[in-house]
């Protein structure tokens, strides 16, 4: 089987079934394995969901431009030093503040390998590389509670199966206070805002870096949730 793009790994039916089941079980056992989660995400997004997302982008003028240009989100393409110098209220600076605070780099997203169609493979890659923007624009941290909140938001907004499975299975690994916060605050917020918001895959993030972050939230239909780290601090101070 020939490759359709540089990182492509063609699979037969048996290999797809094996990888879907194997990566799903392994990811459930060890949710910190980004490679397993990435593989499971690619296997379960096919064939229906990835084409739905691609078609959603094709129906939108900005989405079509993104598919045509195929920009990548990396520390080089974004010029992180320039973003740090932008006014603090801008999308670019909010993004950088979040990256610096959480100790995250945009260069850690794994390449898509198991989606055959090159355009659909780019859609999945774009989703992965935009994930940190979703964190930044909502203010949710990379701790487990924050990830669950963002994953639930993404599920409501994109319909990607892996995000829904993560959002509604990972809370069982948390303590009762954490589950209570998710159940009462962050899951309802995520579902409401994810369903209401414009499709975030159609946001050309590279073109809105100098835009006021609150203005962008209003345009997209996103309310910023309560500060999770502050709620956790308050909870600890009571003990």
Gyration radius, to the nearest Å? 18 Å
Would you report the number of β strands? 0
Q: Look at the helices and sheets and give the structural class.
A: mainly alpha
First and last CA, distance: 60 Å
What is the strand content? under 5%
| H and E order | HHHHHHHHHHHHH
Mean pLDDT: 91
Helix content: 55-70%
Profile the largest sheet.
none
Low-confidence parts: none
Tally of separate domains: 1
The geometry reads as globular
Q: What's the total helix number?
A: 13
Structure report:
The protein is mainly alpha-helical. It has one domain. The protein contains 13 helices and no strands. The longest helix has 21 residues, at 118-138. It is globular. The N and C termini lie far apart (60 Å). It catalyses: a 4-hydroxy-3-methoxy-5-(all-trans-polyprenyl)benzoate + H(+) = a 2-methoxy-6-(all-trans-polyprenyl)phenol + CO2. One of its GO terms (cellular component) is extrinsic component of mitochondrial inner membrane. Keywords: Lyase, Membrane, Metal-binding, Mitochondrion, Mitochondrion inner membrane, Ubiquinone biosynthesis, Zinc. One of its GO terms (molecular function) is 4-hydroxy-3-methoxy-5-polyprenylbenzoate decarboxylase activity. It is a peripheral membrane protein.
């Amino acid at each position: 089987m020939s490759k359709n793009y540089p990182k492509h790994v063609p699979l037969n039916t048996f290999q797809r079934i094996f990888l879907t089941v194997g990566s799903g079980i392994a990811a459930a056992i060890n949710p910190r394995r980004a490679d397993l989660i990435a593989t499971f995400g690619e296997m379960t997004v096919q064939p229906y969901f990835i084409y739905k997302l691609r078609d959603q982008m094709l129906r939108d003028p900005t989405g079509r431009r993104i598919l045509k240009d195929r920009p990548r989100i990396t520390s080089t393409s974004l010029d992180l030093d320039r973003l740090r110098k932008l006014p603090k209220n801008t999308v670019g600076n909010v993004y950088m503040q979040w990256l610096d605070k959480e100790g995250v780099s945009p260069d850690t997203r794994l390449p898509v390998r198991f989606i055959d169609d090159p355009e659909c493979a780019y859609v999945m890659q774009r989703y992965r590389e935009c994930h940190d923007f979703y964190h930044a624009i909502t203010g949710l941290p990379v701790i487990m509670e924050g990830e669950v909140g963002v994953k639930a938001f993404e599920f409501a907004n994109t319909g990607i199966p892996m995000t829904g499975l993560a959002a509604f299975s990972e809370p069982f690994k948390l303590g009762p206070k954490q589950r209570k916060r998710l159940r009462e605050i962050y899951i309802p917020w995520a579902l409401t805002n994810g369903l209401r918001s414009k499709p975030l895959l159609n946001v050309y993030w590279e073109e809105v870096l100098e835009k006021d972050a609150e203005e962008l939230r209003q345009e997209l239909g996103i309310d910023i949730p309560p500060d999770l780290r502050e709620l956790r601090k308050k909870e600890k101070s009571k003990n």
